[in-house]
Amino acid sequence: MRELRILYHGLGMAGKTTNLERLKEIYKDTVYDRIHQQTNEGRTVYLDMLMLKFQTRVQGLYVMISLFTTPGQQRFKILRPWLFGNTSAVVFVFDSSRSMQENMESFHEMEGIVSMNKVVVQANKRDIPDAVPLEVIKETFDGIPVIPAIAKDGFGVLETLKEAIKMALTNEEGVVRPS
Ligand SMILES: Nc1nc2c(ncn2[C@@H]2O[C@H](COP(=O)(O)OP(=O)(O)OP(=O)(O)O)[C@@H](O)[C@H]2O)c(=O)[nH]1
Ligand SMILES: [Mg+2]
């Protein structure tokens, strides 16, 4: 059995936890464990963890999927190198309601830790009226898959995960061997 660890990273309030919540609904029959700590304001304190077990259609193999999110708040920044260090793929949740500059600051936190061939960009909050144009996001992340999403409505959530699994499986060195 292969284990894939997929990390959701992005600005605070970008929609990382929302992705996991929707995936939990989609895979409700196969989710077997979940750790989720939140503050009173609904911000992620430490990290969210959701484990899914299912057969991928990518290579017909049974894989164990562990999903995590990075905590968005600045005071948890110190944890991020550790979180980034052991991942098969990273979903960068781009918050279309925030500026390109703010999003890029969050993106650059992965620099030097995560190789770019393991990254999928989810352009979230496409329902926002003044959203950063999709074309601008695609140009900025040239060479990286960009998947439009409205995570709160479940749109694009599964497509994003499938792309991340595909990337994880094509990057053999990213696969965590079972101990
Ligand atoms: N308009 C809109 N709001 C969204 C969308 N996805 C998530 N949200 C909202 O954005 C807010 C933050 O979502 P979370 O999933 O908690 O964000 P997060 O990235 O986990 O935030 P931290 O844990 O604090 O880093 C919530 O109020 C969500 O309902 C979307 O596609 N469109
Ligand atoms: Mg969160």
List descriptors.
179 residues, alpha/beta, Rossmann fold, seven-stranded mixed beta sheet, 7 strands, binds guanosine-5'-triphosphate
Query: Could you describe the largest sheet, including whether it forms a barrel?
Result: 7 strands, mixed
Provide mean pLDDT, rounded. Answer: 85
Strand order of the largest sheet: 2-3-4-1-5-6-7
State the name of the first-level CATH class.
Alpha Beta
- Bin the strand percentage: 25-35%
Bound molecules: guanosine-5'-triphosphate, magnesium ion
Number of alpha- plus pi-helical segments: 5
Number of strands: 7
State the order of secondary-structure elements, H for helix, E for strand.
Answer: EHEEEHEHEHEH
End-to-end Cα distance, whole Å, is 11 Å
Cα-atom radius of gyration: 15 Å
Assign the CATH superfamily.
P-loop containing nucleotide triphosphate hydrolases
Instruction: Report the CATH topology name.
Output: Rossmann fold
Which stretches of 5+ consecutive residues score pLDDT under 50?
Answer: 174-179
Structural class: alpha/beta
What's the architecture, going by CATH? 3-Layer(aba) Sandwich
Choose one word for the global shape.
Answer: globular
Helicity range: 25-40%
- Number of separate domains: 1
